[in-house]
Design goal:
seven-stranded mixed sheet, FAD/NAD(P)-binding domain, six-stranded mixed sheet, globular
Length: about 375
């Protein structure tokens, strides 16, 4: 089918929505991007761009962003003493950037892409499978009706578009909270520690570090609930001493970004003229670092399927058939990894560290990486 001239509404202007809008507009579509916030703000502090995410950003011509990123060969998984439990497979190439840098680059590119128009402080109030869309503009309260050839739900975990279609969605709350932050202190290396309090990760940036931590004990959960930065720091210092260096410079609790891990899965990713990308389709545990990367891959695969298929129904069926099994596998693996990393009882940690992790290190790392990346990076670049 011809993307040229299609009228497309994208709900959500963050990673998945921006990448999708740019690619479809470059293919000749007229894309209206709608987002409920007045300005897209970064969520998550930092992001580890794997080879698949890097390839999509190269396709989007965001090479300057990648050039400024910190390059690491993966992160060691260690126990609280620093003993290696699992080393990254050879050949791993990860670039670490702040979410702010990624969003700024995507927003600038989207604003400068012919065929894209932006509507911030606006909400997709209604989106039907036949393509009818009603947008409510926040400042004025004005309701705007439009007819779209395609409506892309890139509006996150609590997707309004997903609510209005027949996607067979399941939204599961884990009860597990993660904390992320940017610290001016530099880590000694890229690593993730699995400890008696859960996991604590540190990744280097050009200036400082990106840190993330789970709240695997009642003590940490109480600190989060009370918004007590000192209690949070002390709990982690007892569980993993190197955390102190990164947490010490933080002055206020609101420098920590706290979120609950929520899993979203859908039986299908399209319904009529509605289609889902990113967290709206497949929010996952963060333990493989593939949430944002998978969202970028969604954008490329959707654009390619629209370009290659004979009609819209065929295109969206191909998109779902190609993406859903691959993403489901990654999401399931990430969830299992998250559960294992959260074992805090001594006997379970001994079993994990002394038995399960040595067995995992003997697995087929090249096959695992293919599954994690989902698509060939060369294809994602458009080569």
């Amino acid at each position: 089918m011809q993307v040229q001239g299609m009228q497309i509404v994208v709900a959500g202007a963050a990673t998945a929505g921006a990448a999708t809008a740019i690619l479809l507009a470059r293919a000749g579509a007229r894309v209206r991007v709608v987002d409920r916030v007045a300005r897209v703000r970064p969520v998550g502090a930092g992001i580890a761009l794997a080879s698949n995410g890097q390839a999509v950003l190269e396709r989007l011509q965001l090479n300057a962003l990648l050039a400024d990123a910190t390059r690491v060969a993966g992160a060691r998984i260690v126990d609280a003493s620093g003993r290696t439990l699992l080393a990254p497979p050879p050949g791993v190439d990860v670039r670490i950037v702040t979410r702010a840098a990624l969003q700024d680059a995507l927003q600038e590119t989207m604003r400068n892409t012919p065929g894209v128009t932006l509507a911030f402080d606006a909400t997709v109030e209604e989106a039907t499978p036949d393509g009818r869309v009603i947008v409510r503009h926040g400042a004025s309260g004005q309701r705007e009706a439009m007819q779209a050839d395609l409506v892309v739900g890139a509006d996150g975990v609590h997707s309004r578009v997903r609510e209005q279609g027949r996607f067979g969605a399941s939204v599961r709350r884990s009860g597990i909270h993660y904390v992320r932050a940017l610290s001016p202190a530099a880590p000694s290396e890229a690593l993730e520690a699995w400890t008696s309090a859960g996991l604590f990760g540190m990744l280097p940036l050009q200036r400082g570090s990106y840190l993330y931590a789970s709240c695997g004990t009642p003590e940490l959960e109480r600190a989060i609930k009370a918004e007590d930065l000192d209690a949070f720091r002390m709990a982690w210092q007892r569980a993993f001493a190197p955390s102190a260096t990164l947490l010490a410079p933080l002055q206020r609790f609101d420098e920590l970004l706290v979120h609950e891990v929520i899993r979203v899965s859908c039986r299908q990713w399209h319904d009529g003229r509605l289609v889902l990308v990113g967290d709206a389709a497949h929010a996952m545990a963060p333990n493989l670092g593939q949430g944002g990367n998978s969202a970028l891959v969604d954008a490329v695969v959707l654009a390619e399927c629209l370009n290659a298929a004979t009609d819209l129904r065929d295109a969206l069926a191909q998109y779902t058939a190609r993406r859903k099994p691959a993403v489901d596998k990654v999401a399931d693996t990430s969830a299992r990894l998250g559960q294992v990393s959260e074992w805090t009882q001594p006997a379970m940690r001994w079993l994990r560290d002394r038995v399960l992790m040595p067995l995992a290190s003997r697995g087929d790392s090249s096959r695992m990486m293919r599954d994690v990346l989902q698509e060939d990076p060369g294809w994602l670049r458009g080569r």
